[in-house]
């Protein structure tokens, strides 16, 4: 592997803020991260003692953006912008609209939106009213939409006016839920396009009708507890029903304060481009979280992967939240100048060391700072760690966000593993960003939220990692992406990381396969950079490298040669679950030649 430290401006900045522990402090160290909190030396001194006010999130949000009244904090595609006063006015108008609709405290209003300003304002309005936003991913099937509507007991369903969203929403509300109509919001509503372009349908209510005659509506102030649920964001893969993560006022306040006071470089006056779907907890970080920091957030509702570098070049943001596939597209693009990028953040999927080094090299050539890799899940309000602005370690997912404690534990136990010893354990987290639980799913909640012997509730992530002496965490794979072969553990992400170091490989995904003899074996889906390679020779090179770096049990039993790999529509993550659902030993769809397998034609993968 190459040197894990990339020289760039960001590393040079380390000297400005690094805290050197004196000898007396060093003597007090216990070797346990939950006590020592070694990452705190990367926080600015002024950020080390933050308090979470006991108010609702919208009142907190208003108090934070109050000093930004002359700054545009929200922008839609460069066409319309909103400052503090305009944001508050929009939220007040939506409070009147929801009051007119009869929405009460505690009621759950469902949304299925693409990325437009209305969803930001409506989430805030419902928080102020003590109601709940039930956020459904726009690419869900009618069956899963119906499940989420039923789980939340929603009576109101508001959707973006996009044909496939409308079609699936109409199918869903004809199932067994309490929604009788959908409210359809034109995508260009913010720009003054109020008219519906869809055919008349008795089950579709145009948004313009709902927004009419709201000026004189009287609204009432409601009490709002910090621990009240205000957002439900769904998590779960392509199989089974999703789980509804309940996020509270306190969760959102802690998350935004963490972003503002963790030395991540999210500062007043900077700009960010947000391409995330407004149905994941990460979206809340990338919009209202950054707005609290004084960062202007530019919303882009739709794009293709190949268009992403040109969007960056068009809007020239300082901060981006991107997955590995988008960062790689930037590194391969013809855009010559990224010098405005101060925080190109990576999350949602693991960025392998080799990929990160190659991207950083390209970014440095074009004037940008190195990637700030982060980590998080909906269960901890999406952002748990990020590399600090003044010190970025390649291969690391960073340090814990301010207000949160993290440590490695023996898997599914409360036995803490010392940091700084290169010892692998389950990544666990505790603090005010931890969700209330999964909606109406106590069994799943108890699996993730474990009470330790000292009474502290920890999120057990099912992810493995190592924490170094500086408090930086290195992700080492998911429990679900580990198998046992010949009595030893095989980490699928290790296979991927080794494969990505070879110059003839473009993309890979390692998966589990049930095997009659060995019970479980690894297989590797591979995309080669060129189509005329000697595939068998390339695989022999990879096999030898895997044996050298790991051991023979890590060598895949089969290689599935592909032209491309599937990525999820909503957040552009590699969809390994979809690949695992393929029956690669089906000779009617695949050509099997020894350990090399190729699809005979484009295989339609059935979703469970």
Structure in words:
- With 608 residues, this protein is an alpha/beta fold.
- It is built from 19 helices and 30 strands.
- The strands form five sheets. A nine-stranded mixed β-sheet has the order 2-1-11-10-12-13-14-15-16.
- The longest helix has 18 residues, at 84-101.
- The chain starts with 8 loop residues before the first helix and ends in a 9-residue tail after the last strand.
How many domains in all? 3
Number of helices: 19
| CATH homologous superfamily grouping of the largest domain | ANL, N-terminal domain
- The total of beta strands comes to 30
Strand order of the largest sheet: 2-1-11-10-12-13-14-15-16
What is the SS-derived class?
A: alpha/beta
CATH topology of the largest domain: Rossmann fold
Q: Mind describing the biggest β-sheet?
A: 9 strands, mixed
Helix fraction bin:
25-40%
What is the percentage of strand-forming residues? 15-25%
Amino-to-carboxy terminus distance: 39 Å
Outline:
globular
List the helices and strands and how they pair.
Blueprint: H1 9-12, H2 14-17, H3 23-27, H4 33-36, H5 57-65, E1 72-76, E2 80-83, H6 84-101, E3 108-112, H7 117-129, E4 132-135, H8 142-152, E5 156-160, H9 163-173, E6 182-185, E7 204-206, H10 207-211, E8 229-235, E9 243-248, H11 249-260, E10 271-274, H12 281-292, E11 296-299, H13 308-315, E12 319-322, H14 324-332, E13 343-346, H15 353-365, E14 372-375, E15 385-386, E16 399-400, E17 405-409, E18 416-417, E19 425-430, E20 437-438, H16 442-448, E21 449-451, E22 457-467, E23 473-478, E24 482-485, E25 488-491, H17 492-499, E26 505-515, E27 519-528, H18 535-549, E28 558-561, H19 576-580, E29 590-593, E30 596-599
């Amino acid at each position: 592997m190459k040197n894990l430290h990339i020289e760039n401006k960001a590393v040079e900045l380390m000297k400005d803020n690094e805290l050197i522990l004196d000898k007396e402090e060093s003597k007090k160290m216990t070797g346990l991260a939950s006590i020592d909190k070694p990452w705190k030396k990367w926080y600015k001194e002024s950020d080390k003692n933050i308090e979470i006010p006991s108010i609702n999130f919208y009142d907190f949000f208003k108090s934070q953006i109050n000093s930004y009244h002359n700054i545009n904090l929200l922008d839609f595609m460069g066409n319309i912008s909103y400052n503090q006063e305009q944001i508050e006015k929009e939220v007040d108008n939506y409070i009147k609209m929801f009051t007119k609709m009869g929405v009460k405290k505690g009621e759950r209003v469902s949304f299925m939106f693409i990325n437009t300003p209305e969803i930001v304002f409506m989430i805030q309005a419902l928080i102020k009213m003590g109601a709940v936003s039930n956020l459904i991913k726009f690419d869900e099937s009618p069956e899963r939409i119906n499940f989420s509507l039923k789980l939340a007991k929603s009576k109101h369903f508001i959707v973006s006016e996009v044909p496939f969203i409308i079609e699936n929403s109409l199918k869903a509300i004809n199932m067994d839920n309490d929604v009788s109509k959908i409210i359809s919001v034109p995508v260009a509503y913010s720009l003054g396009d109020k008219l519906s372009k869809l055919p008349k349908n008795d089950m579709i209510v145009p948004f313009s009708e709902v927004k009419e005659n709201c000026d004189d509506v009287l609204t009432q102030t409601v009490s709002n507890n910090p621990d009240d649920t205000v957002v439900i964001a769904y998590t779960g893969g392509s199989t089974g029903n999703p789980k509804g993560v309940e996020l509270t006022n306190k969760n959102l306040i802690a998350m935004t304060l963490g972003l503002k006071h963790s030395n991540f470089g999210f500062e007043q006056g900077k700009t960010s481009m947000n391409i995330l779907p407004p149905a994941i907890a990460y979206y809340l970080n990338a919009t209202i979280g950054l707005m609290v920091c004084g960062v202007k957030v530019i919303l882009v509702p739709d794009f293709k992967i190949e268009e992403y570098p040109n969007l960056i070049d068009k809007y020239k943001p300082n901060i981006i939240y991107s997955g590995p596939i988008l960062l790689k597209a930037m590194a391969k693009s013809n855009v010559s100048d990224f010098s405005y990028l101060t925080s190109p953040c990576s999350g949602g999927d693991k960025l392998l060391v080799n990929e990160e080094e190659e991207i950083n090299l390209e970014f440095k050539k074009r004037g940008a700072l190195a990637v700030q890799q982060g980590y998080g899940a909906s269960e901890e309000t999406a952002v748990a760690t990020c590399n600090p602005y003044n010190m970025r370690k390649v291969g690391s997912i960073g340090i814990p966000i301010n207000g949160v404690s993290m440590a490695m534990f023996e898997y599914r136990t409360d036995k803490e593993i010392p940091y700084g010893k290169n010892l692998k354990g389950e990544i666990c987290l505790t603090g005010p960003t931890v969700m209330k639980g999964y909606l109406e799913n106590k069994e799943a909640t108890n699996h993730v939220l474990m009470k330790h012997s000292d009474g502290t509730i920890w999120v057990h992530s099912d992810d493995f990692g190592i924490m170094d002496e500086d408090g930086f965490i290195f992700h080492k794979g998911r429990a679900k992406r580990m198998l046992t072969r010949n009595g030893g553990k095989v980490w699928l992400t290790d296979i991927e990381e080794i494969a990505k170091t070879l110059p003839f490989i473009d993309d890979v995904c390692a998966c589990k396969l049930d095997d009659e003899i060995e019970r479980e074996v690894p297989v590797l889906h591979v995309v080669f950079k060129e189509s005329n390679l000697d595939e068998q020779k390339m695989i022999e090179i990879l096999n030898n490298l895997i044996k050298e770096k790991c051991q023979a049990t890590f060598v895949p039993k089969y290689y599935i040669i592909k032209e491309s790999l599937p990525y999820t529509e909503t957040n552009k993550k590699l969809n390994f679950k979809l690949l695992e659902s393929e029956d690669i030993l089906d000779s009617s769809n695949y050509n099997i030649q020894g350990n090399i397998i190729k699809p005979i034609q484009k295989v339609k993968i059935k979703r469970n």
